[in-house]
Amino acid sequence: MTTRTVHGACPHDCPDTCAMQVTVENERVIKVQGRADHPNTHGALCTKVSRYPERTYHPERLLHPLKRISKKTEAPQFVRVSWAEALADIAARLKAISDPQCIQPYSYAGTMGLIQGEAMAGRLWNALGAARLDRTICASAGGAALAMTYGHKLGMHTRHFAGAKLIVIWGSNSITSNLHFWTYANQAKREGAKLICIDPRKTETADKCHQHIAVLPGTDGALALGVMRELIVNDWLDHDYIARHVDGWDELRGKALDWPPERVAEVCGISADEVRGLARDYGTTTPAAIRMNYGLQRVRGGGNAVRLIAMLPCLTGAWRHPSGGLLLSASGWFAPYKNPALERPDLLAGRMPRMVNMSTIGDALLQADPPIQALFVYNSNPVAVAPESPKVVKGFQREDLFTVVLEHFMTDTADLADYVLPATTQLEHLDVHTSYGHTDVLMNQPAVQPLGEAKPNTQIFRELAAALGLTDPCFRETDEELVAQAFTPDIDLDLLRTQGWQPLPIPEAPFADGGFRTASGRANAAGADFVPNYECALTDPALAARYPLAMISPPARNFLNSSFVNVKSLRDIEGEPLIEMHATDAAARGLADGALVAAFNDRGRYVARLKVSPRARPGVVNGLGVWWRKLGVQGTNVNEVTHQRLTDMGEAPAFYDCLVEVQAA
Ligand SMILES: Nc1nc2c(c(=O)[nH]1)N[C@H]1C(S)=C(S)[C@@H](COP(=O)(O)OP(=O)(O)OC[C@H]3O[C@@H](n4cnc5c(=O)[nH]c(N)nc54)[C@H](O)[C@@H]3O)O[C@H]1N2
Ligand SMILES: Nc1nc2c(c(=O)[nH]1)N[C@H]1C(S)=C(S)[C@@H](COP(=O)(O)OP(=O)(O)OC[C@H]3O[C@@H](n4cnc5c(=O)[nH]c(N)nc54)[C@H](O)[C@@H]3O)O[C@H]1N2
Ligand code: SF4
Ligand SMILES: [Mo]
User: Fold this and answer.
1) To which protein family does this belong (predicted)?
2) Ligand 3 closest atom vs CA 180
3) pTM of the predicted model, to two decimals?
4) Taking residues 148-177, what's their average pLDDT?
């Protein structure tokens, strides 16, 4: 028996980007653990990724190319084909498309690796002049807001939350989706810090905080303005910091004064004392730190909400302390170390193909002019995760659409493909990673050979480029050669190979003396304001009368977006698709706990089990997790009811800006 351990990195779309230790016995991975010596991982992975061997050696893993033989509207049927046949046919289909802009890539963060992400794929699309993809589905409202406010997606060190005296966890279920931050928050709590959670749902994180403020979805901007007003009238402001490091304060100050606690309370569905108390805690505690996550920006006004909240540490001067400030994303810290030429934008040779927004793929597939003729999906499961799935499904069912899906499993999206190509997992390929929750670069070494006939994404795109007759030498570069081009020379690849990670040199208190990355170097408050939801009583009372319940659909703890839904041991923990509802709302509808119910609106109908639960506040229902439609009830998931309207900034989806009614199914 031979046993060895290999250094890995978790590839998932999660702020923690853990360093993994992979144990291989007789060329089979038997264990995946968190590395004890990596500071942010501190020896532990989450439950779902601890099950990586179960996912990788799953009996339903895709191990060879498949070609569709049924109609798109019929039950999916595929036959096994060789790689040579699949690639030759796919290349022929692509060559027959005269306008390359009608070829549409669709990818997201199934792996966050720089190499298995866009390194080789981007080269192919650039060389072909294929349509570009605006990758907005998750973070672009908040990202645009941070860029406008601080100049980039920048924030405090996650480890310094341990030293805070007040932590406001705002729009984040950290125990579910940012577990390693929670370790630091817990440490602060043990040392006497107060923890406040702001979330419509009473999450497992809210349970562990000292206070939970259950705002209505999409009202955080109003709350932030209300906190500002209290900071002003009680003079809890750092006038020196504002004068030296903030632009646009006079304008914002004027707006904030219009938000007395009673007005905020009414809009947010909370009490005026909750507003006053939050402002008092925030204005009078040092150091005070805010951990936002992307939950609160999945609403129409999400960008403005992030802008307003991001101003708070500038107004109190919280940035002066390493354990004060704010973190939504740290990904901007990596920007100076990344090589922008990795995906070879020069291959576009001056062309500027059309850009399609991934968040409105339903409409794009049905309405784009000229129509999308070929669709290439990798690292994503849009049929499950994109908003308003009835339209997404209809778009994917077009018989004249040629769809290729690179996957590990027969997802809802793969079910609608013409070709399904088997891809390797993180245990089988090389990659390098940055993070959006900490500031270390990581390397992932392949632990075992690819399973079956699976190939890394890079290899699939290499072979497709060859089948298309593309001769640029960049299409022959190996993954090792791609890694060598991923970063500037400041990243020490030898250190990544031996240790597995390298921290970036970020100052302990990065904005203690200003130095934001905006053009002026100052934080920018100009123009930020409260923007209400599309779907709420404030903006559309007629709609709110027909569909009186706001529905949010935050992550389920044991899934990662739609990944892991097919891993039985994890699905067994989640049980079945659930809609959480407050007892008063259930009683008003005569609905009993455990009933099969449908949440519906003009767009669609999502069927799930009702859980009458104090985790839901009155007026808001929680549809947890992005289930695979085919593993849900009656082939539905929560995106049956979400809409495709975009946020105020960043053109992102407003998943949590959604009105429904619920009745027995
Ligand atoms: N286990 C697990 N971990 C994950 C994921 C997962 O699916 N499962 N997803 C990963 C991904 S893709 C991302 S982007 C990250 C972050 O993912 P996020 O989507 O930010 O997820 P959460 O941190 O769970 O935060 C969402 C929280 O925001 C709350 N919320 C919803 N609407 C509002 C609102 O209007 N205002 C406020 N204040 N709160 C609101 C929700 O109830 C929920 O508790 O997490 C990653 N980590
Ligand atoms: N209603 C609602 N919808 C949501 C959300 C929500 O909170 N509510 N969250 C949104 C958010 S934050 C996000 S980020 C998106 C996420 O949406 P996606 O990025 O689509 O994420 P996943 O659902 O995890 O699907 C990723 C797929 O990539 C595949 N994959 C993983 N690694 C590889 C690889 O190396 N090669 C190939 N070829 N495939 C691979 C996995 O098997 C998986 O099927 O969903 C969004 N959708
Ligand atoms: S999903 Fe997040 S917490 Fe889990 S192992 Fe990956 S990086 Fe760590
Ligand atoms: Mo995300």
Assistant:
1) Belongs to the prokaryotic molybdopterin-containing oxidoreductase family.
2) 3
3) 0.98
4) 98
